[in-house]
Amino acid sequence: MQIDLGTLRLDLLDDGLFELRPETFVKVTKSWNTELLSKGRHHPRIKVGFNSLLIRGEGKTVLIDPGTGDKERMAERREYNLDWPRKVLPQLRQLGVRREDVDMIVLTHLHWDHAGACTTVGYAGQIEPTFPRARVVIQRRELDGARQALAEGDDGYCADDFEPLAAAGKFELLERDDEQLFPWLSCHWSGGHSPGHQIVRVGYPETVRVSYLSDVLPTTGQLALDSGMSYDQNPGELRCAKEKFMKIAARDQDLVILVHAPRNRTGFLSEIESGEFKFAYTNS
After folding, report:
1. Of 116, 137, 145, 233, which one has the greatest count of Cβ atoms within 10 A?
2. Are 117 and 129 in contact (CB under 8 A)?
3. Cβ 158 vs Cβ 177: under 8 Å
4. What is the 3-state secondary structure of the chain?
């Protein structure tokens, strides 16, 4: 899917599907969870997607959350029935974008399904940055939080996805909650899902903008402010972030990208009453 924002061309890249148990991914309330789990011995799985964003224009090539990547992930492939090989890197080639063409990668956070493509296995077998010229933008508190989580055994992170970037001096670590990277690209800390989770807005203020809310609103199953995922590290913080950024997107009529929607991946939010939102899909 291509989105034109004046001088900017955006391409929504589909990294492929994987599977999760619905009570893990669409956890609205404790009672709803309990009801779902008690329906029988069989645990159904739902297909979820992953959607990266490529931005080209104003002399820059920027990639937001490049996805899982091409390193072998046998444990994840078994656990989540990952489509394999993943699709973002081949789609970049199809669009004529070489790895060395990418100037910047913006990561909403460091979970393997979002950040894994930042590193790859080189010819000598070493793990190295996938995009050799790109600086990688992330919140400092996310890098600190990921390292702490790994030390505590959290399998949502993989050191091979980001420590080679740190060793190569690729990170641009953000210290403030709100950072303007270019006149048409900004990052805003949300927390909630992970300590340094951030959302990204694309476009000039006077035009239609795009909100990449990542795991603040991964699918429309999380529209309710009290909804979330079992992976969310701070549900109270997430609720505040959902209300804040969904209100902004609704007010400014941002085109919203749903990072984990397998289809119907974009649309517009509207606030129907205080704290309640609906989502109107576009053809994507």
Report:
1. 116
2. no
3. no
4. CEEEECCEEEEEEECCCEEECHHHHCECCHHHHHHHHCCCCCCCCEEECCEEEEEEECCEEEEECCCCCCCCCHHHHHHHCCCCCCCHHHHHHHCCCCHHHCCEEECCCCCHHHHHHHEEECCCCCEEECCCCCEEEEEHHHHHHHHHHHHCCCCCCCHHHHHHHHHCCCEEEECCCEEEEECCEEEEECCCCCCCCEEEEECCCCCCCEEECHHHCCCHHHCCCCCECCCCCCHHHHHHHHHHHHHHHHHHCCEEECCCCCCCCEEEEEEEECCEEEEEECCC
Spell out the domains of the chain, with CATH numbers in brackets. Answer: 2-206 (3.60.15.10)
Question: From the CA atom positions of the chain, what is the Rg in Å?
Answer: 18
For residue 201, the model assigns a pLDDT of 98
User: What whole-number distance in Å separates Cα of residue 167 and Cα of residue 169?
Assistant: 6
Q: Which residue's structure tokens are 């600086």?
A: 135
Is the pLDDT reported for residue 108 higher than 80? yes
Q: What is the pLDDT of residues 14-70, one digit of tens each?
A: 999 999 887 676 555 444 444 544 554 556 788 999 999 999 999 999 999 999 999
Q: Is the pTM of this model over 0.85?
A: yes
Summarize pLDDT for 139-185 with one digit per residue, the tens.
999 999 999 999 999 999 999 999 999 999 999 999 999 999 999 99
Nearest to 158 by CA among 187, 118, 200: 118
CA distances (Å), origin 265, targets 42, 84, 88, 189: 29, 21, 16, 22
The token pair at 62 is 């920027």
Out of 45-54, 125-134, 162-171, 222-231, least confident range: 222-231
